[in-house]
Amino acid sequence: MCRGVAMLGVKDVFTTINCVGGAAAVCLCIDGRPFAAGVAVLLGYFLGDALDGPVARWTKTANEFGVEYDTIADHVAHCVAPAVITYTVYRDAALGLPPAATHAVAISLAALLLVVGSVRHARNRLVDLKTDGIWAGLPRTQVGFLAMSAANSAALGHVAGGAWIGIALVPAMCALSLSWIPFANHRPGRKHFWWVRVVIAVYIGSTLATLVFAPRFVFDVFFVWLFGYLFVSWAALTRAERERYHRDVAAALAKRRTA
User: Which of 52, 70, 157, 223 has minimal CB crowding within 10 Å?
Assistant: First the structure.
């Protein structure tokens, strides 16, 4: 039997920061502060989740515990917390509907985010798909962050029908998440696409700068970058990578059907 302390390392401190950000977000939503909740998720993401992988590689301490811990921490911070934030914003949104109907819409959006994020995770665990550097379907992180950003957006809050744009966005992103459309991830490094690294650096820098100097618009900036990810992450894949991915998907699904 493994001792609990033996599984923990420096990398797990950053995973914990990510998880704490998600937990803080849920608590802030209970207090009726969805914007602050979104900021908690952002801080957990940039100060924790974005660093635990690199730290594990630099310190050569990657292990199965870290993988599992990171997975559940991401589910809390990138799936549960955004769902709660979305519910908190939309339960009192001016949708032109009776209060009971508005409340039902808010519950439905939160439930959809939670169910789809959970189903996608279960699906990807069951389907033995090992294609390095590619996500199968839009990652739950992007889905949750897009929903959270739309809910807290200053721009959408001042546009006629802006709340409905956010509402329509959630099922559309959830459908992409359960699809088999390939999206590039950061593993392995794509050195032949140097511009992707530049885009990522600008994305992180501009989001953090907005959070410091113009916090009201941080989720608008974040939303634009996340929406751009839909194109950039597809464009970052070479034709050979897409063809290999689709072959791997077909093989994995055929294997699952005969299992």
Answer: 157
